[in-house]
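Exercise 3.2. Students should predict the tertiary structure of the chain below and write it as structure tokens, then compare their answer with the key that follows.

Predict this chain's 3D structure.
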Amino acid sequence: MNSFPRMALFLLTLTWPLVTAGAQQLDCQPCNDHYGRVQVGTSVQRIVTLQNVGTKSLRIRGASTSGAAFAIGSFKLPVDLGAGKTVKMPVVFDPTTTGKNTGTVTITSNAKNPKFAFDVAGVGVSTAKTQLNISPASLDFGNVTVGSSSTLSITLSATGGTVTVSGLQSNSPEYTLPGLNLPLTVAVGQNVTVTVQFAPNASGTAAGKLTLTSSADNSPGTVSLTGVGVAAGSHSADLTWNPSNDPVIGYNVYRGTKRGGPYSQINGVLDASTDYTDSGVSGGATYFYVVTAVNALDQESAPSNEVKVVIPSP
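Answer key:
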């Protein structure tokens, strides 16, 4: 008879802590939520379901967040939550900076876990589009002697974020990019210079195009190229002038090698037009030209203003 109360006392001592442990317990679904990529200046709201998984009613007294990009939405407190019941709580992600944002949501209640916390995260992305700026948009190399070369440059800059140039190609073998190493990184606020070389392999106009492939939103970019190949020793000076206000029968063209003369007449017969091509020039030389008008009485006017012409080398 004396052993029965001791057995009952033993059972009572064993089961009492189990009942207390499950009385009030808060849980959530989903927990540790990730909001993905959200543009800066916009917000995304996710619903978290809070549940009392215990056997007694509990009261939620407070809800707060850490991390400037996260906030509790419309959620009226306090909330009494019966055993097994749930309540929906909105959590808002509103990034103000680009990159990964993390935070913690903390729920305070009279549950066994009075400060229930879970993590949240999201990535803020810029609303600005990345742009690769190319200046100038075209290059004109002018006259370049066949067998020689000339170089000009373009400048690359970026807006909206760093740009990586992965491809830069010319569609003509006469235009090359000496010293170029890819990939090429162009940061915001940085100017990157790219050298373009024109080496004509024949006389005549040579048109080309550069194509720049990059990570920018405005990729690909292009640059127009033009140049004229000139055969060695084939230089000339093309002259034009305004017609005389008085009646004339033609013009004489004079050339000198010093400013102000002396000049020598270079046209064999009177030039009835208002243009003249001097094919007797030498590469690398500098010439000075004047023109006179001749009337029907064979009277010659005073010289016109002087024009300086520099002949390319060779």
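Discussion points: The radius of gyration is 43 Å. Residues 3-21 form the longest helix (19 residues).
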